[in-house]
UniProtKB/TrEMBL annotation:
Transmembrane segments: 35-64, 96-117
Broad class of where this protein is predominantly found: membrane
Keywords linked to the UniProt accession: ATP-binding, Cell membrane, Kinase, Lipid biosynthesis, Lipid metabolism, Magnesium, Membrane, Metal-binding, Nucleotide-binding, Phospholipid biosynthesis, Phospholipid metabolism, Transferase, Transmembrane, Transmembrane helix
Name of this protein: Undecaprenol kinase
Upper taxonomic lineage: Bacteria, Pseudomonadati, Bacteroidota, Cytophagia, Cytophagales
Residues the record marks as active site: 69
Length: 125
């Protein structure tokens, strides 16, 4: 038989995650850039009155980029804890993790283009 949910333990986990999000946006320059970009996109979404489906797509894209940035930061911090010396394998791990963020950021820009470019062109005409 499974144990009931431990609410205190669950709340503690949420608090740790909140601290992690705070640290991510406080310490990581690229996370700050993604935060500013997300704010601008949210403002544009309100301005152009995007549809519910478009909002869903935008929110998913923002969450994916932020999640990738969080995973990348975690990998970098762990690698730096393992060794501060140069190691070719660790360099590859860190570069590939950063590439994952870049891939998602590029896809988010493309998705934003699909959603907002027609609206911007219509607004300009």
């Amino acid at each position: 038989m499974s144990q009931p949910i431990n609410i205190r333990k669950a709340l503690k986990s949420f608090r740790y995650a909140g601290v992690g999000m705070y640290d991510l946006f406080r310490q990581e320059n690229n996370a700050k850039i993604h935060l500013i970009a997300a704010a601008l996109i949210l403002i544009a979404g309100i301005w152009f009155e995007i549809s519910t489906i478009e909002w869903c797509i935008i929110v998913i894209q923002i969450a994916l980029v932020w999640s990738a940035e969080a995973f990348n930061t975690a990998i970098e911090k762990l690698a730096d804890t393992v060794t501060t010396d140069y190691h070719p394998s660790i360099k590859i791990v860190k570069d590939v993790a950063a590439a994952g963020v870049l891939i998602l950021a590029i896809s988010a820009v493309i998705v934003a283009g699909f959603i907002f470019l027609p609206k911007v062109l219509e607004y300009l005409n």
